[in-house]
Amino acid sequence: MGSTNDDDTFVDASTLQSWCDRLGGAGLRSTGSEAHEATIAWLEQELLAIAGLEVRSDVYELLRWRPEPDGDLERAGALRVRTADGRAIDVPLVGAVPYALSTTQEGDLVHLPRDTPIARDNAEGRVVLRDFPAPSLTYDVLLAGALHVSDECAARAGEVYDRPAFADRPIHADLVAAGEAGAAGIVFALDLPRAQVAGFFEPHSGTHFDLPAVYVGADERELLLASAADGARAQVSVNAVVEPGTTRNVIATLPGLSPERIVIASHTDGNTWVQENGAAGVLALARWYAALPVEDRPRTLEFAFTSGHLHMSREGTHRYAEQLDAEFDQGTVALTIAIEHLGVVEVDPVPRPDGPGRELQMTGGEEMFVWPVGPSELLRAAVVEAVARHGVGPVIVVPGVGTPVDGQVPLFGSFGGVGTHFHRHLLPTTAIISCPWTLWSPSFGAAAIDVERMRRQILAVRDVVRSVEDAPLGAIAGDYLADRAARAAGKSVAPDPLHPEDLRT
């Protein structure tokens, strides 16, 4: 086992801050866009400057969706209400819904509460007003069966995890249902001030929908509810360029004494300082490991910067996981680690004192994050030890996200983020993930992260690797080996989280 007591040689907080500013300051890096490719190219140049790394790209195709003008979601949509007495009201927007159809359509405005299914008889030819999904996850779900719980998280037992976690699923389902019902458009209303969530990016399924859709804030919701009750009509517009394009995963390999690889990954597309700063963490680990003599690297390290997480129908981590899965039985893959959304400061929704709905408020604390670890006792022990050593803040170490499903492999089908793809392909996996409001809302800028905390989290990841890097492959893999054997014998695999890329007719 390598030394874990040389933290002073690790990348400092000011360097991490400069990298995060480069990533977050680029604005929306939608998958395959010029801004995204510029981010990839910058990371690639940083990797090429590190002696000993072998850098390659895996280029693949996708159908790009780029908001106009200038990649700006807030300006890419428009909503006009025509009242019963003939007035036209232009409604300010949070922004266009990603992957909505680029067109203008009009219809009667109708409010359908969340407990009312969208169907042809209530939505055809109409513009549907729909509330943003209420949080569905509770702390108790995360705490049940947890492997380690910090005191801050234990105190939240019984509470709702009031974050936009998993909102993409009902939003995606609403968009599909509205399209199938022949709706003219859909307006999602958040219960937050428009300025705080301007440019909100969700869903990230990468499915091109077949109707226009936009987001509004809490004040605009009140106007639209009253307008719908008075029999108003609404015109919804989205302006986006849809075209074939390419994107790429960048893989940097650092040879060690063994060709067996330990993979550390994050993704490169994003729209805030939080989404995605994991690439800075992977870059920091690459720089630190490359400075070690090869004799102190028992296994080969592979640093993966994947694409397509904001376009999950063409998810680059899924593509990479398929490749690693095909190679695993040859004994060339020992461990995969995914890191996302690091160093997040806590932002809570609180009652709004001067208007409807709520507002987002920085608490001065640290945001809870989840650290899933697959069925490997060695790996689980290493994670719990690293968490304790580095004081990473509120954390729940879990065997998976959600509820276990008997009769499938793996038992937990999700790790909450890109680590899901490694885990679902039955590669020994651990991952870091959080889902703050600042994940998809750019308004908080660089204030959304604390790079000192981010550095501690990355050091904890490094220590997990150092703890297990010279252990036998079977010890690292643990019960993943039994799961792989069960899959080979025909046992069901957890459902694929990916959606079709194009629903347009």
Automatic annotation (TrEMBL):
Taxon lineage: unclassified sequences, metagenomes, ecological metagenomes
The protein's name in its UniProt record: Unannotated protein
